[in-house]
Amino acid sequence: MSPSTSSDILQKASSNTEILDTQNPARFDPAEEANLLGESNEQKAQANKLFGSLRYSEAIGEYDKALSSCPNYLEYEIAVLKSNIAACHLKLEDWKAAVDTATAALDALERLEPKNVRQNDEEGHGDGGIVEIIGEGGEVEKELASLKIKDQRRDDVQRIRAKALMRRAKARIEQGGWGNLQGAEEDYKELSQMPNLPIQDRKIVQKALSTLPPQINGAKEKEMGEMMGKLKELGNGILKPFGLSTDNFKMNKDEATGGYSMQFDQGR
Hints:
The model is unreliable at 1-7 and 12-22 (pLDDT under 50). The chain starts with 5 loop residues before the first helix and ends with a strand. The protein has helices at 6-23, 30-52, 56-69, 75-91, 95-112, 115-124, 138-175, 178-192, 199-239, and strands at 249-253, 260-264. The longest helix is centred in the last third of the chain and has 41 residues, at 199-239. By secondary structure, it is mainly alpha-helical. A hairpin with a 6-residue loop joins strand 1 and strand 2. It has a two-stranded antiparallel ribbon. Helix 7 runs antiparallel to helix 8 (178-192) and helix 8 (178-192) runs antiparallel to helix 9.
């Protein structure tokens, strides 16, 4: 193997830097970040007014501007904007776009607070939320203030996650189909585990979890029937030159094992 040249080393270093930049996007200095976030918040406020005036398409445009101004590493702010865009698409009855943007909001929150971190936090609060404070005097006040901020942010993230899940579940139900209905059921199951879900939303979740199972089964049977019909049509096209059809083959279910066996009937 020939030794690496300086150009090889530089190329490899450049490649590694690109990977690191993708995983850890460059951050603005605090002053510039504050300016960009302020601009984004102004555009979001304008979008909120448009939403309140039922001008949903225009609101989406303003939310998109707010996203462009917002630093791409501020996952919570991005999630809020994406969730609001999903609400606009729901009003416009663009179900697919609503699902996509609500999912983007949830993805941003997942990057901010991964599921395994949430589970560890829940396990860590199994003692009723008692946290040991280490420090004296002013240090205690700083630790308490820090905990308060973290708790508030955790509540905010949970609130936006609930909104995005509610919006995605509704859009999935409106889209219909086996897969979408199953996805909606999964969203509602996750929502049912949230302790601080508003009462009105909890009623919607409980109702959906009771009505979705038969809808899912119905959609499954319909799609399976359509699929079998297409397979039968394909099979008949292949068998026709031989004077046969799929009617010549009978599927017998073994009730003991749940498996199937095929029986050929030439007389059909």
